[in-house]
């Protein structure tokens, strides 16, 4: 617990070194917190979308197929434009925000870990560039597929 708290205290300290035993508990905690944050941000959007699909299926049983079973619930809507698509901009915005927070919290720790292995902290930058590129291009790809 002490190494995790120390990682949060040193969030803006890009100098020095971090051994594996100090880096990984902090890094895994940050990644777990980012995933929890993403889930909490996305769950209301997904719940709204599922509620709209279930409402449409109940009001228009001839246009939808509902299959239920133990631990299973599926709604298939046969008319493509019957239920409006959710705003994926908010979805991707939540993911991008959580990723940016994660990168911000990990940047100094990754730099210190790279220093410990004899490398410059700049070696951590390509991962952030690839992440930003993916988060920028993926929404455009999804729009093209929809």
Give the overall shape.
elongated
Number of helical runs? 4
N- to C-terminal distance: 45 Å
Proportion in β-strands: 5-15%
Q: Which percent bin holds the helix content?
A: 55-70%
SSE string: HHEEHH
Strand order of the largest sheet: 1-2
Mean pLDDT figure: 88
What is the makeup of the main sheet? Answer: 2 strands, antiparallel
Rg, please? 21 Å
Helix-strand makeup class: mainly alpha
Give a structural overview.
- The protein has 146 residues and is mainly α.
- 67% of the residues lie in helices and 8% in strands.
- It contains 4 helices and 2 strands.
Write the layout of secondary structure elements.
Blueprint lengths: L1 H8 L10 H40 L4 E6 L2 E6 L10 H29 L8 H21 L1
Antiparallel strand pairs: 1-2
Please provide a brief summary of the model.
By secondary structure, this protein is mostly helical. It is built from 4 helices and 2 strands.
Main attributes of the structure:
146 residues; mainly alpha; 4 helices; 2 strands; 8% strand
